[in-house]
Every structure is written in C-alpha cells, then in structure tokens.
Amino acid sequence: MNRPSKRTPDEMRAVSLERGVSKHAEGSCLIKFGDTHVLCTASLEERIPPWLRGQNRGWVTAEYGMLPRATNDRMRRESSAGKQSGRTQEIQRLIGRSLRAVVDLEALGERQITIDCDVIQADGGSRTASITGAWVALHDCLAWMEARDMVKVEKVLKDHIAAISCGIYEGTPVADLDYIEDSSADTDANFVMTGKGGIVEIQGTAEGEPFSEEELGQLMGLAKQSINKLVELQKLTVL
C-alpha cells in the first residue's frame, strides 16, 4: 500500500508548534500539520456564563472557523451567511470539551478563557490540529496569569490534551490523514486523548464497508503512538 504522501502507515506529517505569534492574546500558538495550518489564540475574560455565576468556578470554551481561502476554492464567510454551519458548531464544541477535560475549573476561578482556532490553510485534520495547538495557547494564557499571581498553572492544567485523525485507506490502517486520504478513506476516525492515555473522545465513521473491532483496535494503537509524540512536542514547546 502506497500512501499518496509516501508516508509509512504510522508516520505523521511534519508537525510544528510556534508560540507567541499574537501580540495581543494572552496565549497563542501557530500549529502546522503538514499543509494544515491553524492559528490558536487564548483570551482571558473577567466574566463567566450567567449560568455559572455564584458557583466559584470558571469556564473554558472555544470558537473555530476557516478563512475564505483556507481551501482550493474561496468559501463564503459564515458571518456573511448569518449563521454558523453545523460542522463549525460541532468542531468548536469538541475543542471546548477536550480542553475542559484537563482543566480544574474551580482552580481557574470565576473567569473565562476563550480559545479561537482559525484555520489559515486546510489539508485534512484541522479539528485535531486545533485541539493540539489550543492546549499550548491555553497553557501560555495560564502562564500569563500565573506571572500576575492570578492562578498556578499546575493547579489549573491537570494534563496535556492532543488529537489525531486515523483511518483505513486502501484497506490499511494509517495515521494522520491528509485531505486526499480523508476524502477517499474507507474509515475515518478522530481520537482525542490526554497525556496520561485517557480517552476524551473518539469519532469514527465507516464511509464504505463497516470496520471491525480488530481494525478499531489497530486505529487506537496508531492514535496512541501519534498522540504520545504530540504530547512530547507540546512539552518541548512550553519548556
């Protein structure tokens, strides 16, 4: 089996994480998974959702969007259409859930951190890249707060979180699908896991023939291996 990118089945695309790319945001990260590039910014807000008032805990949420020329053809801005697509809403909820899984909201205090994930260029895996880069932006926002005696990073941030797409392409389980593979894969799955190996979310769909339990196990193995590498890269980035 030859992948279009010539990668081996367990080989990810080249991944890079660049911190401090936004002058104004409390935390920011530009993450690149091959030709998928996402700008993640973390903004501290001294407010919380109304339904959280009086509970002595904060909130972490996310927004996601794709720039008009992130893909081959220009897309209309969702703000021009007057509403977000179902896909956009689903992805930003996924990012928010993933981050909250490793955050102690009581230790955060009555504050909200909003992570904006803007896809500059898309070639598959934009949601998984967003989650992985968002963790770095969140970490740096909390470090900004710690420098001002607002919180302690180690008390708020309980673990790392990262994500990867895996799938079955031409009958073979592979890691980190790019667009060509994603658009023709037999099975497409997204895995979100913590640095300690905890599973936060698995999204898997058979596009053609149903996949077996054995194949799911193979995809899980690829995901664990890839996410371990991403967590190590996060650790190196925030040193």
TrEMBL record:
Primary role: Phosphorolytic 3'-5' exoribonuclease that plays an important role in tRNA 3'-end maturation. Removes nucleotide residues following the 3'-CCA terminus of tRNAs; can also add nucleotides to the ends of RNA molecules by using nucleoside diphosphates as substrates, but this may not be physiologically important. Probably plays a role in initiation of 16S rRNA degradation (leading to ribosome degradation) during starvation.
Catalytic reactions of this protein: tRNA(n+1) + phosphate = tRNA(n) + a ribonucleoside 5'-diphosphate
Domain Exoribonuclease phosphorolytic: 11-141, 161-225
Transcription regulation as UniProt keyword: no
Keyword RNA-binding: yes
Organism: Pseudovibrio axinellae
Similarity comment: Belongs to the RNase PH family.
CDD domains cross-referenced by the UniProt entry: RNase_PH_bact (cd11362)
Record's protein name: Ribonuclease PH
PROSITE patterns for this protein: RIBONUCLEASE_PH
Keywords assigned: Nucleotidyltransferase, RNA-binding, rRNA processing, Transferase, tRNA processing, tRNA-binding
GO molecular function: 3'-5'-RNA exonuclease activity; tRNA binding; tRNA nucleotidyltransferase activity
SUBUNIT field: Homohexameric ring arranged as a trimer of dimers.
Binding site for phosphate: 87
GO terms for biological process, alphabetical: rRNA 3'-end processing; rRNA catabolic process; tRNA processing
Protein EC: 2.7.7.56
